[in-house]
Design goal:
Length: about 350
């Protein structure tokens, strides 16, 4: 199994990364802020206006290190791609599956089932930890309603129906999500539904930022096994859209991103001062907020749990890689039916 390499996140505006021998130096206003051996790094994630020397870019492309540029708010912008690697037969099987109606439908149902089951599990856990009877009842009701959608999902015989159930489940989930925020934190992090492009409140800004990090990890996991991240089954295909990465991340949204967001907010590890409120109503994480979230994200990915299918101890950060390999086995015909990751 491919190990999760260390990733260098660069959040300082106007930073410049260059090679110095076999090390990477991070320069800010001609001052060396960091120096780390290149072989310790598996990739770079750059936020905002961050520059890299041509020599470093060439080495990254040549040696297969990923370089991802995100906007200041954490939205995916661009990615450096080196020579295409991976098994051509696997990609051929991936392309054939898109023309197989039953296989496409089975995969789409599996991605959505994983998302809904993990969403229900988060609401159930929040209900167990909730001391307010009204909030407990709302969380329990949301979990039960999602459970009924899961039952109907098994009989969905078109992609439109699968997508419809996914939308219904997400709406119920986010309606109950505010009840998982502790009362003392709701003054600053009240949540009344998803708003994107741009986020309209701190919780939406936090979720969007974490989803951008998760999408990057899922895309990298798919590429690491030789799959094309743009050829998906649940999400519609569009030029430049990483549809398969979006498919894969569905089962991890609540497990990796939403749980972390609630932890940061409920424990007071992130507050209103970590956000910028702009004219027009948009809300974005500021530099200090992004640094705090990235540190928590990296720490969270080091947590270890037992994978329910492999029955092995796996770091959370490796879960997308594990699922990408299982998906590859299904597409090759080595395994019958894709089994999404279900958090316990």
């Amino acid at each position: 199994m491919k190990q999760l390499f260390n990733t260098l996140y660069v959040t300082t505006p106007e930073a410049y990364l260059r090679l110095e021998g076999e090390t990477v130096c991070v320069m800010v206003e001609d001052e060396k802020r960091l120096q780390v051996p290149l072989h310790h790094l598996g990739g770079f994630v750059c936020f905002g206006h961050v520059m890299m020397s041509p020599a470093l870019l060439h080495r990254c492309a040549e040696e297969g290190r990923s370089v991802v540029w995100l906007t200041r708010s954490g939205r995916f912008g661009a990615r450096l791609e080196g020579p295409v690697n991976g098994n051509v037969l696997l990609r051929r099987a991936q392309h054939k599956a898109i023309d197989d109606r039953e296989m496409t439908l089975d995969l789409a149902r599996s991605f959505v089932a994983g998302k809904l089951r993990n969403s229900r599990q988060l609401l159930r856990r929040a209900a167990r930890d909730c001391k307010d009877e009204g909030d407990n009842a709302g969380l329990t009701d949301g979990a039960d309603r999602i459970g009924r959608i899961i039952e109907r999902l098994a009989y969905a015989d078109t992609l439109d129906k699968v997508r419809g159930y996914e939308g219904d489940g997400a709406r119920i989930y986010f309606q109950a999500f505010n009840l998982a925020i502790r009362p003392q934190a709701r003054a600053d992090f009240s949540f009344d539904g998803r708003s994107r492009r741009p986020p309209r409140n701190p919780m939406n800004a936090l979720l969007s930022f974490l989803y951008a990090l998760l999408l990057n990890d899922c895309r990298s996991a798919l590429e690491s096994v030789g799959l094309d991240p743009q050829l998906g089954y649940l999400h519609t295909l569009r030029p430049g859209r990483p549809a398969l990465a979006l498919d894969l991340m569905e089962e991890f949204r609540s497990t990796l991103a939403d749980r972390l967001a609630l932890t940061l907010v409920n424990r007071g590890q992130i507050g209103k001062s970590d956000f910028d409120f702009r004219e027009g109503g948009s809300v974005l994480l500021n530099d200090d907020g992004r640094k705090a979230v990235i540190a928590a994200w990296q720490e969270r990915k080091q947590d270890v749990l037992k994978h329910p299918l492999l029955e092995e101890q796996v770091p959370l950060g490796l879960l997308p890689h594990v699922q990408a390999r299982l998906l590859a086995r299904v597409l090759r015909g080595d395994m019958e039916g894709y089994l999404p990751y279900l958090h316990r």
